[in-house]
């Protein structure tokens, strides 16, 4: 195993940025402009970071690690574009979405182009398992988008439905990042399995926190209106828990329609903001983080462990 400082990690993140720029480059001006716009719109590069950290638990560094990280980010970028089309969203990270800045057709084609380029990127890797896992990842992301679409304004869905949805929407790609980062660096099977679970637990927690912040943060920090998920018909954990504990709230959700007056949505959002279900949701998130932390403690690379534990602290304390 080998240790990397954060300086080395930062250098590799820059290399991933170069690869992303290379793959999104197109001689078709509109696609090129839309991809560049998305790339520079403030993404956190969380999946590449997890890939790089997980690679520290392997025996041999490989350029495949960079390619895996690039591929996963391209898949993620494509999913964001498609999500915005499905939700008819006008803003992402405080900026107009591609569908808003250009049009829906351009957004769909841009998302498809990014997915195609992710396949182009992974073709540079010679390991069949990496191909298979990344292909399955694309399938699951698509299933997640379908689940989210099917569950819109469906009031009788279960918390299990929600967990399945966020697994495909967020946890899967983070889990793949930690799994394939370790695998590409030739980590042993047991370590790869542990890192896969760690990525899953962190991904689940991260999305639950995201769903909490949709109510507790500000429009400026969110880059979109507070309560956007509920306004788009996405029933997240705070809402589902509130429905279990309040018959009146559940009845209001049952009557909710896409064209319900904004005052109705405002009232429901305010009820969630004042409810104890936000803290209960936080407890579920922290439960996933604790499971991740327990597994991290069993790993061997101290530098990698430290970075993973720092991420857990940031998620636990995250407020935007």
Automatic annotation (TrEMBL):
PROSITE patterns the record matches: POLYPRENYL_SYNTHASE_1, POLYPRENYL_SYNTHASE_2
Signal peptide stretch: none
Keywords: Magnesium, Metal-binding, Transferase
Top-rank lineage group of the source organism: Bacteria
Names of required cofactors: Mg(2+)
Entry-linked InterPro entries: Isoprenoid_synthase_dom_sf, Polyprenyl_synt, Polyprenyl_synt_CS
Family named by the database record: Belongs to the FPP/GGPP synthase family.
Identification of the protein by name: Heptaprenyl diphosphate synthase
GO BP annotations, alphabetical order: isoprenoid biosynthetic process
GO molecular function: metal ion binding; prenyltransferase activity
């Amino acid at each position: 195993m080998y240790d990397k400082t954060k300086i080395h990690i930062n250098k590799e993140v820059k290399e991933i940025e170069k690869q992303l720029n290379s793959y999104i480059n197109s001689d078709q001006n509109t696609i090129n402009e839309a991809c560049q716009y998305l790339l520079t719109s403030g993404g956190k590069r969380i999946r590449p970071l997890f890939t790089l950290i997980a690679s520290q638990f392997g025996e041999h560094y490989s350029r495949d690690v960079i390619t895996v990280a690039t591929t996963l980010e391209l898949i993620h970028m494509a999913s964001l574009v498609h999500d915005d089309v499905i939700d008819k969203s006008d803003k992402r990270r405080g900026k107009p979405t591609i569908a808003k800045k250009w049009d829906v057709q351009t957004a769909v084609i841009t998302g498809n182009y990014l997915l195609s380029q992710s396949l182009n990127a992974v073709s540079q890797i010679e390991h069949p398992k990496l191909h298979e896992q990344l292909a399955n990842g694309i399938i699951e992301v698509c299933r997640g988008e379908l689940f989210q679409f099917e569950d819109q304004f469906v009031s009788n869905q279960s918390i299990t439905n929600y967990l399945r949805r966020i697994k495909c929407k967020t946890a899967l790609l983070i889990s793949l990042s930690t799994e394939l980062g370790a695998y590409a660096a030739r980590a042993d099977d047991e370590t790869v399995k542990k890192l896969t679970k760690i990525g899953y637990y962190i991904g689940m927690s991260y999305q639950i926190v995201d769903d909490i912040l949709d109510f507790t943060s500000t429009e400026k920090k969110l880059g979109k209106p507070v309560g956007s998920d509920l306004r788009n018909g996405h029933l997240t954990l705070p809402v589902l828990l509130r429905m279990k504990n309040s018959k009146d709230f559940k009845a209001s959700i049952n009557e909710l329609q896409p064209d319900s007056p904004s005052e109705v949505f405002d009232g429901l959002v305010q009820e969630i903001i004042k409810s104890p279900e936000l803290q209960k949701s936080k407890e579920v998130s922290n439960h996933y983080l604790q499971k991740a932390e327990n597994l991290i403690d069993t790993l061997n690379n101290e530098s990698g462990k430290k970075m993973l534990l720092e991420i857990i602290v940031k998620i636990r304390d995250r407020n935007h």
